[in-house]
């Protein structure tokens, strides 16, 4: 938010408009009026008090001071120059012909009203440095910054131009102040004639005389007198001059005059060299950062992969342990199954022998171990037939006699050894 | 003069940085990029390997269940002496149940396997074939994992062949 106060000073009164700019929109906030003392010393003190009060009440970013036309002298000068800077330099010398005091005693500003080939016609307004200084000192004393010092009739005209978009006007514009009629004759919407007439004088005659040169009519603003308005058939242009003065801080005006001495002007920082330097530095920095950034990104990516590999390696070592554990469990299980399978070998042997041995054969000794070795001793009618029977079964193998066969009472005594077939 | 010095210093700094980047950082970046490619391939291999963990865990679980089922038949007693006593008692009970007469029973030296320990016993007994068959059947069907290492059955008196003498080496298992 930016807050500006426009303060216009008339001969007997003063008006202030407080204007805010928020989010790009400018709006008047408040206005205040004062009657100024007639005595010069008291008047100066009163103005200082006004500024102090404004500073205290509104804390503005700055003020714009508007002065009535009687503070200025004006000249329309034709110069053989067209460039603004050249004209400005030339006016330092040219004005010596027109001003009663040395040019340095004045603050002047100008606008080019017309250009013809290599010549320019300029309107120059000059104000005495001393007259401005009293306002500047009062504002500085109150701690207020000054954006600009304006001429009230010019700002009234600027407002008039903004409101009336008609071009090529050839009319009279009169701004009425406490003591004067400030008259501007417009030709092609450019000030071609300026005059300040005291209210004591007969304005009607003057206007009637001027209307022959500016026939499009009369526009009047400010503190108008109804009787005068009636007599000269004028159109009223409503205007708050302090508001118009405040607006100059936000909007570029078609007729731009500023009488604030250079030494009090706010210096504008030229950011362009900084911007250029900053951009160049940023470019170099970006260029230099590209390689380290690439390196950093690569390094980071590799670290992520390495971390992941490290995690997986830990998991993999767990997996290897798991596999070892599985092998160990499987070995145990195999051992237990083998052990379990061998526990019934003697029973198997006895069962198989019971099926194979002939009914007349009988055993007197039988030995079996868990490795499947069998030894037996007994009696049978024919031991050789017994051996054949045993060999023919799928239960035994490697059947052989372990001792000679002896015959007794029709029976043969045998001793056999063999192995169990299969696991 | 001072301004020129600053400009020269900045120019030298920028140039030094550029040289440092060109001759050190950039080759390092290239090398890192190469490493990333090879390490990423390794990572993918490892990830594939890791995905097989789930299968192995299932197999282990099943193997543990099987082993636990069989191990339920082991002698629980921790010391060899107690384990031997436990087996001896079990065998005596079974013999009594089968009405097989025990003449002597004695523990033998334990046999060490990898994970388990064999607890052997020697039994000398007598009985008829019916009692012996019943005894062997009871041993085979008992919950305790008892194995007959060796068996010798002989007729004591050839005139009375029903009277048998039985010498058996029996063993049970306990965890080492």
Descriptive overview:
The complex is a heterodimer of chains A (about 425) and B (about 180). With about 425 residues, chain A is α+β, with helices and mostly antiparallel strands. Chain A has ten helices and 17 strands. In chain A, helix 1 (about 40-60) crosses helix 3 (about 130-140) and helix 4 crosses helix 7. Chain A is rod-shaped and about 185 Å long. The model of chain A has no long low-confidence stretch (mean pLDDT about 90). Chain B is an alpha+beta fold. In chain B, about 55% of the residues lie in helices and about 30% in strands. Chain B contains four helices and five strands, in the order H-H-H-E-E-E-H-E-E. In chain B, strands 1, 2, 3, 4 and 5 form a five-stranded antiparallel β-sheet that branches. In chain B, a hairpin with a 2-residue loop joins strand 4 (about 145-155) and strand 5. The longest helix of chain B has about 50 residues, at about 1-50. At the A-B interface, helix 8, helix 9 and strand 14 of A face helix 1, helix 2, helix 4 and strand 4 of B.
Write the layout of secondary structure elements.
The complex is a heterodimer of chains A (423) and B (176).
Chain A: E1 2-9, E2 13-22, E3 25-35, H1 40-58, E4 62-67, E5 72-79, H2 84-94, E6 106-116, E7 119-128, H3 129-141, E8 146-151, H4 152-163, E9 172-176, E10 180-187, E11 190-198, H5 203-211, E12 218-222, H6 226-232, E13 235-236, H7 241-247, H8 272-342, H9 345-356, E14 362-369, E15 373-380, H10 383-392, E16 396-408, E17 411-420
Parallel strand pairs in A: 1-4, 4-8, 9-12, 12-13
Antiparallel strand pairs in A: 1-2, 2-3, 5-7, 6-7, 9-10, 10-11, 14-15, 15-17, 16-17
Helix pairs in contact in A: 1-3, 4-7
Chain B: H1 2-50, H2 53-71, H3 80-98, E1 101-107, E2 111-112, E3 116-127, H4 129-141, E4 146-157, E5 160-175
Helix pairs in contact in B: 3-4
């Amino acid at each position: 938010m930016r807050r500006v106060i426009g303060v216009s000073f008339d001969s007997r009164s003063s008006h202030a408009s407080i204007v805010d700019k928020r989010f790009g929109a400018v709006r008047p906030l408040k206005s205040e009026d004062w009657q100024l003392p007639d005595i010069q010393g008291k008047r100066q003190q009163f103005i200082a008090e006004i500024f102090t009060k404004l500073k205290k009440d509104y804390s503005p970013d700055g003020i714009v001071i508007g002065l009535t036309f009687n503070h200025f002298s004006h000249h329309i000068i034709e110069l053989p120059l067209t460039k603004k800077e050249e004209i400005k330099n030339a006016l330092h010398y040219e004005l010596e012909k027109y001003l009663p005091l040395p040019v340095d005693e004045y603050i002047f500003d100008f606008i080019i009203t017309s250009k013809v080939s290599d010549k320019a016609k300029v309107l120059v307004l000059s104000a005495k440095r001393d007259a401005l200084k009293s306002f500047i000192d009062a504002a500085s004393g109150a701690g207020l910054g000054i954006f600009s010092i304006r001429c009230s009739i010019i700002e009234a005209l600027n407002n008039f131009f903004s409101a009336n978009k008609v071009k090529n006007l050839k009319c009279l514009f009169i701004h009425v102040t406490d003591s004067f009629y400030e008259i501007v004759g417009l030709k092609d919407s450019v000030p071609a004639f300026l005059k300040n007439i005291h209210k004591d004088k007969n304005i009607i005659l003057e206007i009637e005389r001027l209307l022959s040169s500016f026939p499009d009519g009369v526009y009047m603003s400010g503190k108008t007198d109804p009787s005068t308005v009636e007599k000269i058939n004028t159109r009223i242009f409503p205007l708050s001059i302090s508001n118009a003065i405040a607006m100059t801080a936000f909007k570029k005006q078609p007729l731009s005059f500023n009488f604030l001495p250079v030494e009090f002007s706010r210096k504008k920082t030229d950011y362009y060299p900084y911007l250029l330097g900053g951009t160049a530095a940023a470019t170099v920095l970006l260029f230099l950062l590209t390689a380290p950034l690439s390196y950093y990104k690569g390094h980071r990516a590799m670290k992520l992969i390495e971390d992941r590999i490290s995690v997986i390696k830990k998991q993999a070592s767990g997996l290897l342990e798991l596999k070892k554990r599985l092998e160990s469990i499987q070995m145990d299980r195999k051992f237990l199954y083998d052990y379990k399978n061998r526990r019934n070998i003697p029973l198997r042997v006895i069962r198989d022998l019971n099926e194979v041995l002939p009914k007349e054969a009988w055993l007197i000794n039988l030995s079996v171990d868990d490795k499947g070795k069998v030894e037996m001793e007994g009696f049978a009618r024919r031991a050789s037939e017994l051996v054949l029977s045993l060999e023919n079964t799928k239960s035994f193998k490697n059947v052989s006699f372990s001792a000679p066969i002896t015959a007794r009472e029709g029976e043969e005594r045998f001793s056999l050894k063999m192995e169990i077939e299969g696991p | 003069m001072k301004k020129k010095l600053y400009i020269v210093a900045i120019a030298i700094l920028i140039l030094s940085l550029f040289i440092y980047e060109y001759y050190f950082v950039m080759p390092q970046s290239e090398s890192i990029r190469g490493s990333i490619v090879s390490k990423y391939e390794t990572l993918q291999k490892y990830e594939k390997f890791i995905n097989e963990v789930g299968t192995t865990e299932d197999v282990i679980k099943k193997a543990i269940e099987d082993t636990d089922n069989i191990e339920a038949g082991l002698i629980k007693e921790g010391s060899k002496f107690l384990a031997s006593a436990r087996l001896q008692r079990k065998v005596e009970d079974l013999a009594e149940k089968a009405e097989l007469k025990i003449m002597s029973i004695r523990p033998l030296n334990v046999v060490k396997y990898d994970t388990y320990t064999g607890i052997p016993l020697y039994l000398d007994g007598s009985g008829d074939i019916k009692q012996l068959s019943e005894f062997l059947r009871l041993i085979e069907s008992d919950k305790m994992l008892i194995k007959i290492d060796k068996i010798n059955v002989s007729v004591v008196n050839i005139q009375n062949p029903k009277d048998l003498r039985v010498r058996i080496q029996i063993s049970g298992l306990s965890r080492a």
